[in-house]
Design a protein that fits this description.
Number of strands: 19
Low-confidence stretches: none
Shape: elongated
Strand order of the largest sheet: 13-12-1-5-3-17-18
Mean pLDDT: 96
Largest sheet: 7 strands, antiparallel
Strand content: 15-25%
């Protein structure tokens, strides 16, 4: 579940991947093919994407194989010939992958990764790769937007109980941390990915005691180094006054109340009043943590209204990317054998052949524009972004740790000018097509029109 391997998930694919593979096999088509994975267009309000999911994709490709029980199931469908099923026994991914490092910023039409290998191997990987890359890139992008809204304030993933299944809950914790969150409430994700974990109490904890202040005191006794009190079970301001009393009792014992948590009501107004009460009581060191329906939009509204909040628990709307629940992500054949290929469907034209992304920076070190070019091109003054990750079916070197990828994202995100980070009506980042790719694209399109449309 947490490390998706090809041995476990060879059948986690669409049927047409297998029927195409069977036909390739029948026709003796085993030449090298290159597929490009990219996002076709920006959803509303988006102007950039954060690459994530590469580790899961590589783990799958490295271990891709069909087990006996998989082949027995395929045989039971009566769709496939014995010769093809015998062939699948031997299938392993033997190709290469070029990809953006996790945490990279990229833009529409730019390849997140490109897979090259015998066409059956590369084709069979399509469904899983789209699934893995789409989810984590979707969440990392949403989480990055939340960090923009929050500024210097800390964000914690609170989404587990409402994500779309257990595996999604784990991947959301990972992707949000990659994109700048400081941790998660998800304990298993903390264990598996080495994430800091956060959490305090629910309203049920408060109501299980005979009084709110007794609940607060009990929690302070159990966790004197990590006392964060949920103060809105009955009345937020009354709860704040009781938290102050407990905080003063702790201070008398040489301890410190760490924080109070708001989970309902007018967060801006309540946080302003709670901050005033804490400061007047000499508890200016106590942080105010807020949760309850937050995403980048609610964070921005709350802070714009003067909210005095030090950290946010960001849950459901981030965990399911509520405003944009999917990306128009695609995995398309761009070369077969020695022949660059493309799709000409209206609104879905693809760029041919093996590609590279070239990025330019201005004198201040800020990103100023990209070009999509051919893999073997070199554009003066531009930095190539896609790097070789796998060759002959194996990793060329270990992928960066999640912590290193998070640091890489933070460095790169700081280089993206503010006009592209706006939550609404952002500017569109300039992405050009290189001269080499333009020329080859025109040649292939002319050939197709002459061959297929005349």
């Amino acid at each position: 579940m947490t490390r998706a391997t090809g041995e476990q998930f060879a059948l986690l694919t669409d049927l047409y991947e297998l029927t195409m593979a069977a036909s390739y096999f029948e026709e003796g088509m085993h030449e090298e093919a290159t597929f490009s994975l990219f996002i076709r267009k920006y959803p509303p309000g988006r102007s950039y994407f954060v690459a994530a999911g590469l580790a899961e994709a590589v783990a799958y490709l490295e271990s891709l194989r069909f087990r006996e029980e998989d082949l027995a199931y395929l045989e039971s469908t009566r769709l496939f010939k014995r010769e093809f099923l015998d062939f699948l026994k031997q299938v392993r991914f033997t190709g290469e992958v070029w990809a953006l490092p996790e945490g990279s910023l990229f833009f529409k039409d730019e390849p997140i990764l490109e897979v090259t290998g015998p066409i059956i191997e590369a084709q069979l990987a399509e469904t899983f790769l789209i699934n893995a890359i789409n989810l984590q890139t979707l969440i990392a992008t949403k989480a990055a937007r939340s960090t923009v809204a929050a500024g210097h304030r800390r964000l914690v993933d609170f989404s587990l109980r409402r994500t779309q299944g257990t595996d999604a809950g784990l991947k959301v914790a990972r992707a949000s941390y990659l994109a700048g969150f400081v941790g998660t409430s998800n304990v298993l994700a903390g264990k598996l990915y080495g994430l800091p974990v956060f959490g305090t109490m629910a309203h049920s904890y408060i109501t299980s005691f005979s009084s709110e202040i007794e609940a607060f005191r009990a929690f302070a006794r159990a966790f004197p180094q990590n006392t964060v009190l949920l103060i809105d079970t009955y009345d937020t301001i009354a709860g704040a006054r009781k938290a102050i009393q407990v905080g003063q009792e702790m201070a008398a014992q040489g301890q410190k109340l760490r924080g109070v948590r708001l989970d309902s009501g007018d967060m801006a107004a309540l946080s302003i009043e709670v901050r005033r009460l804490l400061n007047e009581a000499g508890l200016d060191y106590v942080t105010i943590f807020a949760s309850g329906g937050f995403d980048e939009f609610k964070i921005a509204r709350t802070l714009a209204a003067g909210g005095c909040i030090d950290a946010f628990g960001v849950g459901t709307k981030m965990g399911v990317s509520a405003d944009v629940p999917y990306f128009d992500i695609a995995y398309k054949l761009v070369r077969y054998g020695h022949r660059p290929v493309m799709k000409l469907s209206s609104g879905k034209v693809t760029y041919v052949d093996k590609k590279q992304i070239f990025r330019r920076y201005d004198d201040q070190g800020l990103m100023s524009g990209d070009s999509i070019g051919l893999r073997d091109e070199a554009l003066a003054g531009a930095v190539p972004l896609l790097t070789p990750v796998m060759a002959q079916g194996r990793l060329l070197k270990p992928l960066p740790t999640l912590a290193a990828s998070r640091e890489y994202f933070l460095q790169e995100f700081a280089k993206l000018p503010i006009q592209y980070k706006r939550l609404e009506d952002p500017s569109e980042y300039p992405v050009a097509i290189s001269p080499g790719l333009q020329a080859l694209q025109a040649q292939v399109e002319e050939r197709i029109r002459r061959q297929e449309l005349e």
